[in-house]
Amino acid sequence: MRAVIVRKFGDVEELEIGTLPDPSPSANDVLLRVDATSVNFVDLLVVGGKYQFLPNRPFAPGKMANGTIAAVGANVVSLKVGDRVQTMAESGGFAELMVVAPENCIPLPASLSAADAASMSLVFDTSWFALRDRARIRPGETVLVLGATGAVGYASIQLAKAMGARVLAAVSSLAKSDTVKAAGADAVIDLSVGNLRDSLRAQVYDQTGGNGADIVLDMLGGDVFDAAIRAVAWKGRLVVIGFATGRIPTLKVNYVLLKNIEVSGLQVSDYRKRDMPQMRTCFEEMYGFYESGKVRPAAPQTYPLEEYEVAMTEIRDRKAAGRVVLLPQE
Questions:
Q1: CATH number of 2-121+299-327
Q2: Which CATH class name applies to 124-267?
Q3: What does the alpha-carbon distance between residue 63 and residue 42 come to, in Å, rounded to a whole number?
Q4: Could you give the CA distance from residue 320 to residue 20 in angstroms, rounded to a whole number?
Q5: What is the pTM of this model?
Q6: Residue 75 is inside which H or E element, if any?
Q7: In DSSP terms, which residues pair with 262 in a beta bridge?
Q8: How far does the chain reach from its first CA to its final CA, in angstroms?
Q9: pLDDT, tens digit, for every residue of 277-301?
């Protein structure tokens, strides 16, 4: 099979396109013809040998591929040849074929294309766990989404709205307002205003009658976290998802005590390893929202497998305008 191959850990330029032996499913596995796999920053960590879970080399990178079942093991009864599934696989997606355990496969809606399913994976599920599991969202609450124009931010706006919340979208420039409003945001918070420590809270209070945000999703960290923690409502919840600004913030916990607030973290890959039943619930609700028209994946930029270097470089150099997806069958 054709595959992007990691023979030694390093930069994108050290990968190669070549052939690996066709995988063969055991009696308890399925063989998947890979239709689409998203390209993400985490893939750069994997090929660079900097991720916490690394397969034995040589291997094909690519997390959470989706595809069509090409063969099933003798003991598999839950899936059949021709079924389209989203996998929870941690690697192997940048290849034509892969073997997956059936319990790590979730059926795809017939109306959802392979490219759009890949566009949703790793971002909509991250947002879902932040909102449903860590923040315990309730209808009518106000959610402040930091980094709202990023992939996880885009998904968070849509999912929070689908779950019945009012959404404040924080942007680095008001020139990006139309983007977050098109995603469903009710109001925009301008992070470019001076004296962010006070101005962010003032804007949020202005939008919430002085109450603050019930939930804050933080993909940014740094000074934005320092300001946003002051805009959390009484008994509010802030979920740390990432540190895109580059600085990991610290928190004086007396502030947590004084306002009865919670600060939690989210590492979504742990759920794939520790709680597949909840991961399945996540995708089933996401796909239900998709089928009812409440959410829509960002239109992906697609590449054939041979153009993996272009696709991964777009992510590495932060030039990608949206989601990037490899299509191994093209």
A1: 3.90.180.10
A2: alpha beta
A3: 9
A4: 29
A5: 0.95
A6: none
A7: 237
A8: 13
A9: 999 999 999 999 999 999 999 899 9
- Using one digit for the tens of pLDDT, what is the confidence trace for 155-165? 999 999 999 99
Q: Note the pLDDT of residue 72.
A: 97
Amino acid making up residue 317: D
Please give the sequence-ordered ranges of beta strands (E in DSSP) within 6-55, or none if there are none: 16-19, 30-39
Q: What is the pLDDT of residues 64-108, one digit of tens each?
A: 999 999 999 999 999 999 999 999 999 999 999 999 999 999 999
Rounded CA-CA distance 81/65 in Å is 17
| Structural contact between residues 156 and 145, judged by C-beta atoms closer than 8 angstroms | yes
Taking Cα atoms as reference points, which of 180, 112, 176 lies closest to residue 143? Answer: 180
Taking alpha carbons only, the member of 78, 98, 90 closest to residue 33 is 98
On the CB side of 281, CA atoms within 13 Å amount to 9
CA-CA distances (angstroms) from residue 36 to 84, 117, 301, 328?
Answer: 11, 8, 12, 7
What residue has token string 């959470």? 64
Q: What six digits make up the tokens of 307?
A: 């153009």
| Residue 6, C-beta contacts closer than 8 angstroms, at least 6 positions apart | 15, 46, 47, 57, 58, 59, 60, 61
Structure-block tokens of residue 159: 């999912």
Amino acid at 228: A
Q: How is residue 63 written in tokens? A: 């997390």
321 confidence band (pLDDT: 50, 70, 90): confident
Q: What is the DSSP letter of 169?
A: E
What residue segments make up the domains of the chain, in order of their start?
2-121+299-327, 124-267
Calculate the CA 187 to chain-centre distance. 23
8 A C-beta contact, residue 240 and residue 146: no
Residue 231 tokens read as 């805009």
Among 329, 285, 326, residue whose Cα is nearest residue 115: 326
Please state, in angstroms and as integers, the Cα–Cα distance from residue 137 to each residue in 18, 78, 208, 237, 264, following that order. 46, 32, 17, 9, 14
- Burial code (b: 16+ CB inside 10 Å, e: under 16) for 175-188 equals ebbebbeebbbbbb
Q: Write out the two tokens for 62.
A: 């690519």
